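Is iron/sulfur cluster placement plausible here? Inputs below.
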Amino acid sequence: MGQVKKLQEEIIRLKREKDILILAHYYQRPEVQDIADFVGDSLELSREASTAAQGTILFCGVTFMAEIAKILSPQKTVLIPYPLAGCLLADMAHPQEVAEAKRSHPNAKVVAYVNTYAQVKALSDIICTSANAKMVMEKIPGEEIIFLPDRNLGAYHAKTLNKKVALWDGHCPVHQRITWEPIERVKKAHPQALIIVHPECPPEVTDRADFVGSTSQLVRFAEASDAQQFIVGTEEGTLHQMKKRAPEKTFLLPEPHPICDQMKMITLDRVYKSIKENIYQVEVDEEVRIQAGEAIRRMLSL
Ligand code: SF4
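Reply from A.M.:
I modeled the complex. Tokens:
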């Protein structure tokens, strides 16, 4: 038996023995996704975490995601296999800057993308994900919004809204690097392929794609579509679930392949160490947790 398989079996044995729920984001390594009880995007994972029956959740993703699990389920132990797995997009919104923006836009509601740290969520009126951003921006009362931190996602939806939207100057470096030219090269070689992309991609890509959606929406679209070939504009880990759900279809990536190094910091070895030694436990300051929880629950209730 291969080393990877052995380690996976041992992790599965330990999670059953210790009654631990393993959640994994789509951008995780394939061998990590395969030991998870549930693989999803940020919205699905936060829902799953909030309804989990297990007393411990091991979160295979970046730290802001594990924070959400702790915010929604403070009585549970939340583990992350590597606490330095951050999000470069979340790093672009500092709480002090958000507080300043609120002061200079006193009538605006702050809509924070889920890719923010707990302290920023605590300063926000409501949270959104890439799956529900448009609906949240529409439904939040008021005519003015500060949308943070992803400029591309905010701009993509702002153009269809009848509200004033102040966009934060942040971006996900992984999706920002997905430009039109490499996609067009793949399209020339595979003219039948549909172009499906994440809204964190730059406007030159989202404006020309056949379908724009959150990671889960991309996976579901590819599975349900009659098309057989897809050029996928999001992090490469997503292809693992696409291939599992539609093994007869072809999924292509633009060059260079979009890879989130932060997500890839979660390795099988680190998952094993985490589950075996009960490390690293995620903690969130209680006042921050309560305020951030209100903003997340406002989203979940919509
Ligand atoms: S892909 Fe981008 S937004 Fe997602 S975790 Fe990585 S840096 Fe953050």
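Short version: Residues 38 and 132 are 20 Å apart (CA to CA).
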